[in-house]
Amino acid sequence: MNILGIESSCDETAAAVVENGTKILSNIVASSADMHAESGGIIPENAARQQIKSIIPVITSALEKAKINNEKIEAIAVTSGPGLIGSLLVGIETAKTLSLLWNKPIIPVNHLSAHIYANWLSDKKSPEFPALALVVSGGHTDIVLMKDHGKLEWIGGTRDDAAGEAFDKTARLLGLPYPGGPAISIEAEKYMTKNPKTKLSFFPRPIINEKNYDWSFSGLKTAVLNEVKDRELNNEEKQKIAAEVQEAIVDVLIKKTLRAVQEYKPKSLLLAGGVAANIRLKEKFESAISEHVGKINLFVPPIKLCTDNAAYIASFAYFNHSPVPWQKINANPQLTITGQV
After folding, report:
1. How far are the Cα atoms of 197, 250, 253, 281 from residue 7, in angstroms, in the given order?
2. Most buried among 104, 109, 276, 330, by the most CB within 10 A?
3. DSSP state, residue 126
4. What's the distance, CA 71 to chain centroid?
5. Residue 36 has what pLDDT?
6. How many CB atoms lie within 10 A of CB 212?
7. What is the per-residue pLDDT across 120-135, written as a single tens digit (0 to 9) for each?
């Protein structure tokens, strides 16, 4: 079954064709990251205008690369939330139009839970259920128990700033470019290469010892602000702070997630979302699992599938095949990870 996926929830415009939920035939992303870097972050109106320009060329490219035409597309999947309202509408209205013109079923997709399906698009064996999934992105940090496709139980999430927001905001405080996660990671790697034995424990690990699966990163952001305000930092100082910030975020994510692994005893642990591309996070998860948890299969998508793209939108739609009349699909910017589209 060939599904055309369309994703436009935030700053990317993406389309992909995926066969049977696991085989990527094409995956095209038009990024506006350079434009947003100039403004130091995403301006919603600018993002939507750029997506209007990009959406048709991206879909055309996805079909051409997959070497199929619309007649061989059996369904259209589109992100309906969460995200920026203007951006979501670009993808939704395009998908509705194609559904009507091509006479194809249309499947609305929850972007957050779809992130998890990047783990079904790698060369590894597919994850086994029950699975525990940690979804860490720019605006969301959630941990859910997956008992099967479509059966998600939310067990914890962020109380304030998500991990990705903490990266972006602390990067801005350090004068580093947007997006903040990769910028922090690059500077942290420079410091750790020069100081491999340094213990990174300067900043707090908020609510790390609370007996729940919630996160809070606003206090970490404030700690960084207090450390850097009224100071002219040299490059080495910026690198050290970046390394400390990254380590603090990673430590909290890992400790609480592994506590959930011990309680729920899943067969698979899945990482997903843009922050899952963080190399330090993957390294420390692999080390901690081998040392403290025992046998569990850890899945981390390839970096190119962690960030926003349409391949996992199409994969989600295959495994959660619930077509809806195109007239009833609406954008829902506030959708939660277990919310119904």
Report:
1. 42, 28, 27, 26
2. 109
3. P
4. 31
5. 63
6. 12
7. 998 778 999 999 999 9
Map residue 196 onto helix, strand or coil: coil
The single-letter code of the amino acid at 223 is A
* Cβ(111)–Cβ(341) below 8 Å: no
* Tokens coding 175: 């004068």
Entry pTM: 0.94
Q: Are strands 297-299 and 268-272 parallel, antiparallel or unpaired?
A: parallel
- In the chain, % helix, strand, coil (3-state, to 5) comes to 50, 20, 35
What confidence tens digit (pLDDT) does each residue in 136-187 have? 987 889 999 999 999 999 999 999 989 999 999 999 999 999 889 999 999 9
Three-state DSSP class for residue 150: coil
Instruction: Please count the CA atoms within 13 angstroms of the CA of 27 that sit on its side-chain side.
Output: 19
Residue 174 token pair: 């350090």
Domains, the chain, with CATH or none: 2-117+305-328 (3.30.420.40), 126-300 (3.30.420.40)
268-272 vs 131-136, strand pairing mode: parallel
